[in-house]
């Protein structure tokens, strides 16, 4: 009985002491410091270090065994198309699906739709108007940069980057054409580096005949989504290219 009483009194005294220390600390610099550190790490949990801006060659999406379906709005131009603008961490990992409370809302980007149909074409089957692809990209990647770019800002940033990084024009000026011939990957990468001033990363896939081909080009962009930067880290893996790859027609 006596021991129980002593223990509960002791616990209450300890609790009282903790409360008084906390209430004193609330006014102190130390409490302010702890609060700052906590707030910063909470917000950084959703933050990111840079973007990958990824463009895709439609000919290489379509001539694979999975094939493709042109969007309901018609065959996309014979040009690289946007795959996505992806927030990434310097350690190579990336955040995804950061905010289920901010779903894709096409009414926010109605002024961009015709440019998206042209530059961010959906090629998956069944044929659709593009919304499925764009909403996937926004919800998986875009929501992780919403502290910097709202939905309109996100899609607009990607479209502006597409006109800044005109891959087809850069490659064609270097004599690299989508003509079904093979080109050396290091020559493709050098041409792009000379064209934009930064080193790209190249990913390949395989056509129905088993040939490796130029599939996607990654460049890095600062957290504002507007300026190209050197990539802090390249994607993991080797991009599945052989030293020379096909550049198929589309
Ligand atoms: P992500 O999840 O953003 O890394 O992108 C991969 C997904 O995007 C896969 O499901 C692909 O099939 C899809 N995807 C890639 N390119 C296209 C495209 N041009 N049209 C539709 N879906 C695509």
UniProtKB/TrEMBL annotation:
Residues 1-25 form the signal peptide. GO terms for cellular component: extracellular region. Belongs to the RNase T2 family. GO terms for molecular function: hydrolase activity; ribonuclease T2 activity; RNA binding. The active site is at residues 83, 137, 141. Keywords: Disulfide bond, Endonuclease, Hydrolase, Lyase, Nuclease, Signal. The lineage of its organism: Eukaryota, Viridiplantae, Streptophyta, Embryophyta, Tracheophyta. This is Extracellular ribonuclease LE. Pfam families: Ribonuclease_T2. InterPro entries: Ribonuclease_T2_eukaryotic, RNase_T2-like, RNase_T2-like_sf, RNase_T2_His_AS_1, RNase_T2_His_AS_2.
């Amino acid at each position: 009985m006596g021991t129980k009483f002593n223990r509960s009194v002791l616990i209450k005294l300890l609790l009282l002491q903790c409360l008084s220390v906390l209430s004193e600390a609330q006014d102190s610099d130390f409490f302010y410091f702890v609060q700052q550190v906590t707030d910063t790490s909470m917000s950084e949990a959703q933050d990111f270090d840079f973007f990958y801006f990824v463009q895709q060659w439609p000919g290489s999406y379509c001539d694979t065994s999975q094939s493709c379906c042109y969007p309901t709005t018609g065959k996309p131009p014979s040009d690289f198309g946007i795959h996505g603008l992806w927030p990434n961490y310097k350690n190579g990992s990336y955040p995804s699906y950061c905010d289920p409370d901010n779903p894709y809302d096409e009414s926010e980007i109605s002024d961009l739709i015709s440019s998206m149909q042209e530059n961010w074409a959906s090629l998956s089957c069944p044929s659709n108007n593009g919304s499925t692809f764009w909403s996937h990209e926004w919800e998986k990647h875009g929501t992780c940069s919403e502290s910097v770019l709202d939905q309109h800002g996100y899609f607009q940033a990607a479209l502006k980057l597409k006109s800044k990084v005109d891959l087809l024009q850069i490659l064609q000026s270097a004599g690299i054409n989508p003509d079904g011939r093979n080109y050396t990957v290091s020559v493709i990468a050098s041409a792009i580096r000379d064209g934009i001033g930064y080193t790209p990363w190249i990913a390949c896939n395989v056509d129905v005949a088993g040939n490796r081909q130029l599939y996607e080009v990654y460049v890095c962009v600062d957290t504002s989504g507007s300026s190209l930067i050197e990539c802090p880290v390249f994607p993991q893996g080797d991009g599945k290219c052989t030293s020379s790859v096909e550049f198929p027609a589309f």
